[in-house]
Amino acid sequence: MRLVGSADRRRDAPGAGSAADRPDRRDIVRRRRLRNGIGTGLFVGPALLLYLVFVVGPLVYAAYFSLYHWSGLGAAIDFVGLHNYVLAFQDDLFRASILHNITIAALSILIQLPLGLGAALLLNRRFPGRTALRLVFFAPYVLSEAITAIIWLLMLQPDGLVDQALRGAGLGSLVHLWLADLKLVLYTMFVVITWKYIGFGIILFLAGLQGIPPEVLEAAQIDGATEIRSIWHVTIPLLGPTMRIWGFLSIIGSFQLFDLIWLTTLGGPAGSSSTMATYLIDHGFRRYQFGYGSAASVILFLVTLVIAVLYQFVLLRRDTEGAVTRMVA
Amino acid sequence: MTRFRRSCGLLVGVLAFVTAVSGCGGDTGSSQSSNASSSSGPVTLTWWHNANTDPGLSFWQSVADDFHKAHPNITVKVVPTQNEQLQTKIPVALQSSDPPDVYQQWGGGALATQVAAGKVLDITNDVKPWIGQLSTAVGNWQVNGKQYGIPYNLGVVGFWYNKDLFTKASISSPPATWDDFLADVGKLKAAGIVPISVGGQDRWPDAFYWDYLAVRMCSKSVIQQAAKTYNLSDQCWTQAGQKVQQLLDAKPFQPGYLATPAQVGAGSAAGLMGNGKAAMELQGQWDVGVMNSLTPNGQGLADKLGWFAFPSVSGGKGAQTAALGGGDGFSCSWKAPRQACVQFLQWMSSPDVQKRWTALNVGLPTNTAATGSVADVNLKNLITVRNKVPYVQLYLDIAFSTAVGQALDDATANQFAGTTTPQQVVKAITDAAANQ
Questions:
Q1: What CATH number matches the domain at B158-324+394-435, 3.80.10.10, 3.40.50.720, 3.40.190.10, 3.40.50.1860?
Q2: Rama region for B107: left / alpha / beta (φ>0; ψ in -120 to 50; rest)
Q3: What is the pTM of this model?
Q4: Fold adopted by B42-156+326-390
């Protein structure tokens, strides 16, 4: 109604009627714009609605509940301000959980990156059985987290498959209590995580390698570069954007780590493999302390957000702005 | 202007979508509200239970069908859910405007929390005519003397043991005192046998030891008071932890017990026990079924399996023959049609249903008329013990509020892992109570 009204007013305005067809054309343009808008709305609507209901809504709710002391039953009326946040940071286990997340993220970069890159460089060559080998590397990534966790839980039991394999290979001295040793369990879990996700990194790097123009490598060869030198000075710099994206996904994934840990160790023993996510589920849902659990989840969200934003600005900026490579820099 | 118009169109589009979606969901609300109306017309009861596998699954369905035949105007909609999932679903559902009418209830602190929030029907007066048929077990489903749920199963925790392995270690009869028990652990170790299996990964099996020793060290009134005030200043609580430490120092458990699940896979605590790889396990009445299912032939230890009560502890101020236990029951939610819901609870507790349930060999009936129907040798032994004991203390992690109960499980698990002292266990529990 209001749109029609404003259009009429325009038409009556002095000086507007110099050409008789002009308002009509304007109307057509306006209508088309409105129609486009409705079209866009219908397409964006479902996704936007889902995003609002399942992402923004819970986020706002969590932030709200985190200010209350709330068991999940009845109305949240016991306002405690930032007390839940204070409690969380005072809890040794929560601080340890943050440290575990950081450890996993650092190990991912330090170990998974070279490992994934090396495997991708190998698998990029032509040799018999390449497809089969690619499949082997990628298969774990297709398994669900729950299945992976149960498989490894059974294999890592004392005298399980891992121990038997080690003994069979004459490495019996390497047998440990993989999941029961408080000092070892986090690293055991890191191996499982690497096994599970390395395939994803390899696929990313392989895709990145396909994007490197062969001319560049040829030119390097003509200039007399050895293979190692051309990998180091040509391939790896040109893979920069891919590696940075992988690093981004890997760090975010390390901070949100939940399923694998929860189903294999429940964050134990004695919290030695707990992450922020297992901590908040443990304290929120298992203890029915939804206010406190919400505070922990808001902290996790903020930590992840800060890392994501910093990473975007510091490392990914050139890539998102369309730079092909960092070579010149 | 253009921007405004475009966003206006966007808004119209989104609104159209929202209306379409909400239109679809709109009518469910109105049909639900008829549930809460008076019981004169046809009523539907939504029933949430945790028997998501057979035999329980088909049994409860048949109970619902029979009940509907006898009360044609009451339909029961059965919703089975896996146990751990159900425990997180219930508080969320009770908080919603559309809770189940009848739902699984384990009593204790969680029940008290639900009652305090006004989410459970007080059925004290409705059940008065018939609750006398049930054993004293019903006390665990009361809050401040009012009845908020009806149990159909009440079991006790005790030691399952492998008679063959005991013989192999030259142990003639199961231990009756704590000192004998520790001595037998030594004998089993000397014979190269893992004395005890425990599911340390799940934490609650660790807590059974602390709970039971607290029942032995603390008087009944101290425990009952603690479940209300969380005042654990009595020395008996620390002494319970010290007894736990005494056991831990004897290193009686299987290698890697901190990461062993309680009941998943043949390498779990129940699996080790069922497959003859450990001599004892402190567990509830359900463990026989779990053990059997984790053995290749499904038979478990069969007649090699024995049961003995938790040993008495000299110097303890608690009841030396009291049992630790717990069970399952059902409550009516705040929105349930009272009359129909109570009729259904009565139906489930009736001698007939209880006898048929008992025949499934999955637990111990609460209706005393069904006691004779317990067929399994081990369960028969258990129900005799249960009916004789001075009292059955609800598992402390259930008797305490959920927040404190879980803190108890965590603290004892930490003591099992060697990172927490008996004093720190008590402190962790009181701290959790102060912050809950």
A1: 3.40.190.10
A2: left
A3: 0.83
A4: D-Maltodextrin-Binding Protein; domain 2 (3.40.190)
* B43-49/B142-143 β-pairing: unpaired
Q: Is the ipTM of this complex over 0.85?
A: no
pLDDT tens string B114-163: 998 899 999 999 999 999 888 777 888 999 889 999 999 999 999 999 99
Angle between helices A240-255 and A185-210 (to 10 degrees): 150
Q: What is the CATH number of domain A84-320?
A: 1.10.3720.10
For chain B, the structural domain boundaries read 42-156+326-390, 158-324+394-435
Contact between B117 and A46 using a beta-carbon 8 Å cutoff: no
Q: Do B9 and A44 touch (CB under 8 A)?
A: no
The Cα–Cα gap between A216 and A225 comes to: 12
How near does any CA of chain A get to the CA of B270, in Å?
Answer: 14
Q: Which of B10, B255, B419 sits opposite A177 (nearest CB)?
A: B255
The answer, yes or no, to whether residue B381 has pLDDT greater than 90, is no
Taking only Cα atoms into account, the Rg of chain A, rounded to an integer number of angstroms, comes to 28
- What are the tens digits of pLDDT across the range A117-172? 999 999 988 889 888 998 998 999 999 999 999 999 989 988 889 999 999 999 98
- Residue of B2, B4, B5 to mutate, testing the A interface (most A Cβ within 10 Å of its Cβ): B5
